[in-house]
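Here is a typical sample entry:
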Amino acid sequence: MTAPEPASREPLRVGNASGFYGDRADALTEMLTGGPLDILTGDYLAELTMLILGRDRLKDSTRGYARTFLRQLETGLGLARDRGVTLVTNAGGLNPAGLADAVRELSERVGVPARVAHVEGDDLLADRDWGEGVLTANAYLGGAGISACLRAGADVVVTGRVADASLVSGCAAAHFGWADDDWDRLAGAVVAGHVLECGTQATGGNYAFFARDGIDARHPGFPLAELAEDGSAVLTKHPGTGGAVTVGTVTAQLLYETAGPLYPGPDVTARLDSVRLSQAGTDRVRIEGVRGEPRPDRLKVGLTRLGGYRNEVTFVLTGLDVPAKADLVREQMEAALSRPGTRRPAQVDWSLARTDRADAAAEEEASALLRLVVRDPEESVVGRAVSGPAIELALASYPGFHVTAPPARGAPYGVFEAAYADAGSVPHVAVLPDGTRLDVSFPAAPRRQPAGSPDDGARPGPSSEATSTVTSSTRRAPLGLVAGARSGDKGGSANIGVWAYDADPDLYLWLRETLTTDRLRVLLPEVRDLPVTRHEFRNLAALNFVIDGILGDGVASQHRFDPQAKALGEWLRARHLDIPEVFLP
C-alpha cells in the first residue's frame, strides 16, 4: 500500500464496509474483492456504542475498541495489501492506541507487513469535570489527523471519536492537498461521507420505496464514492452487488440524522440546501454544487453515563374485554408497587398496544400487549420487586394471563448528553507509523466566506414563495404512497426526513403546504406536546422535521417502544390524509 500523492487530481475511490458496531461481518472482504478501491473506511461508533465501550473499559482498561474489526482483519489485511487499499476506521473507540497495537500484533502474526497509525485527543474524560457519573466524554474531531497519517504513508489508520463524515473528508484532503479553508471542496467530501457513513442505507437498505421501485434489498452491496478534486462525487457500488443507488436512496441517507440547512462539523459547515443530485447511470448518482462555510469554533462532546436501572414486564391480553383486562392488572400492579414497606420506582410507565383484531384466525392476532416499564437509581427497586409481584398474579388476575418473558432483574440503562468545548482547547494528535507524534490541533477558524449564495447553480425548482396549484380531486390514502421518509435519533431528539417520490416538484409543493408542524402533531399524537421544527430542502424536494425530547435521555435510556426512532418515519407514511389523485399511483 502506498500513501496518496498530495495534490493529486485523479479521482479518489472511497468505500465503506461498516455503518455500526455489529454490521455485516463479511463486508470488509466483499468490498476488497468486489472492485477497485483506493481507501476503505469503517464507521463503528454511535452514541450507544460509546456507552458499551465505556462499560467494556471499566471491566478491562486495555479494551474500549471494536474488537470485530480485528476479526475482519484476519483475512482483510492481506486482501487490502494485495490490492493496494488503505484502511481508515474509527473502530479505535475509547482506545485507538490499543487497537493500533493490536493491529500491529495481528500484522506480525498473519505475516502481512502494515504501517499502522492512529489519531488521539478526543478522549476528554479526565480533562475537566463533566459532572457526576459521566462514563465517557469524547470530542468529535475532524479529518486533520487522518490526513496527516495518510500523508505519512500509513496503510491502516485507526481513530477514536471523529465526526462520521470526517473519515472521508480527511482522506480527500490528503489526496487532493486541500487547504483548511477550501470550504466548498471540503463540504462536498463531508456530504459524500455522510451518505457513505451508514453503509447500505445508501444502496437500498431501509429504503421507503424498495417495494415500489422493485429494489432487491435482500443483500444490498456497500457503497463507495468516486471523489473529484472539485469536491463533487459520484455515489455507486461494486458491480453485481444487491440493492440500488438512485437519487431516492441517496436523498434518504442525506436526510438521515440531520436538522436544518446547515450541517456543522469539525472540518467545515456544509450547506445541505445547496446539494444537487442527478442520476448519472445505473447505480450512479452525482452529488455536486455543495457549498461550504467556516467550521464552528466549538466541538461537540458526547457524554455518556449510567442513568440507573430499568425493568420491563409485558402482559398479553387476548380476546374480549381488553380494556377491562388492562385496567385490572394495572390496578393490581400499582397496589403491589405501593405496598407498605416498599419503595415505589422513581418512574413507572404503562402503554397498551392494541395489536389485537376481532374474530382473529390466530391467537397472536387476537392479542394486545400491555407494557410496564419502571426505572430507578437502585437495581433492587426495579428487579424482582417488580417482576416478582407480576408473576404472582398468574392465577389471580385476568383470564388468559401470561407474559412475554420470565421474571428478570433490573438492567442498567444509559444516558447520552451533548456538551461543547472550545475547539482550540481540544488536543488532536496524529501518531504516525514511525511513532512520531504530530500535533494537528484545531487552529483558529478562518472567517473567509465563500462567494455566492447556497442556491447558485441550483437546478430549477419551486421558489420558497411558490405554492401548489393542483386542483385534482382528492382521495383518502396513506402518505407513504407519494412520500418517502427516513427517521433517526440524535440524543433525546429525533428527525424525520420526508421527500416527494421521484423528486416531483408539484408533489413537493403540495407536501410543503400540507405537512406543516401542526399537521405532523395531528398525524403523530406522541408529538403533540413536543417542540417541532420544520426545515425545507427544495433541491431535494424534501422536508425535515426535528422533534425535541421524544427519545428522553437518548437511545440507551430506552424511553419509548422505538428507542432510536428508526420507524417513526414509517409510522408517518402509514397515516392517512386527503391526497390529490393526480399524485397517487
User: Anything to note?
Assistant: The two ends are 51 Å apart (CA to CA). The first helix runs from residue 27 to 34. The first strand starts at residue 12 and ends at 16.
